[in-house]
Amino acid sequence: MPTTTSNELKNEIWQLLKEYEHTRSETIRNQLVKINFGLVRKEAHYWINQCSESYDDLVQVGYLGLIRAIEKFEISKGHAFSSFAIPYIRGEIQHYLRDKGVAVRIPRRYLAIQQQAIGVSRTLREKYNRQPTDSEVAAGLDISVNEWQEIKLAWVNRSPLSLDVPIVDGEEGTTSLGELVPDPKYRSFQLAQEDQIRLQQALFELEKCTREVVECVFLQDLTQKQVAEHLGISVVTVSRRVKKGLGLLKELMVGTED
Length: 258
What we know:
This protein is mostly helical. Helices cover 68% and strands 3% of the residues. It is built from twelve helices and two strands, in the order ααααααααββαααα. Helix 1 runs antiparallel to helix 2 (26-35), helix 7 crosses helix 8 and helix 10 (208-218) crosses helix 12 (235-255). The protein is globular and about 55 Å long. The relative contact order is 0.07.
């Protein structure tokens, strides 16, 4: 029996996505869910080590995220489907865990390495005058690249996107990510959780250079001058990308209400 190569599988998924976009066929959607089962399984395995929920429950919840990703995916934007789908699968599982009040655990070793990584990253930035790669940080910590990426993921999931972090825009005063949320009543706890997930998904859709600036400002709470130094660009460029990013996020957030 011939073995399906990675490229052949990607091509099959792409063709099915094109067909689904035009037909919205439930049969095709189910085919896509079956083919992409590995994405759900990988996320479920990650979370099973950090909570008390069963693997089967996490898989079922992850499937809901995968279906939502299939329904939201647009061929014209040129994203790799797997990269597009993961935030939806992860978001659905996070939402489920928060709904149930499940405490997500981070291994003590991960916490210690994350603290050590702050100093390692600072040293590498000073040495190379740029942001260090995952491989460089992992080597400095004497761990594998895969483990370092798992630790980063655990830390991001522990500290979800804040809707209230302020940003000062020279022309328009102070704003925050929360102001991009279409529903003005988002302050209720549960809706805030949903909006955090929607914002994480919208952030992914920004082009890389714009997303990096927005994440530095909102996730790392850096000033525009610090972001400029961190990314090696001018303050004017930072300001321009922040404005562009906020505008695009607002459009994307409104779009998620459809």
